[in-house]
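Subject: EF-hand domain-containing protein structure
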Amino acid sequence: MTQLETAMAILMKTFDTYAGAEGKTDTLTKAEAKTLLEKELPGLLKLAKNKDEVDKLLQGLDFNGDSEVDFSEFVVMVAALTCACHDRCLKK
């Protein structure tokens, strides 16, 4: 597989690893999303100044307001974070 194909496969596998631990297998509950962030993006959580920022991030992931994060919402979050990291690297 190419690097991009590998990255896509890793995104899918990562989402699927955490989805369904509590509820539906194709969505993340708030708790599942928080666990995913804690385990997969620990540096991001360390940069958060307080718990409210993390809760706002989790709430912001749920674009359609169904109290769950589906794969599309997850991918948008990863893309936004990737853009933010890329922008920071360019400024350095």
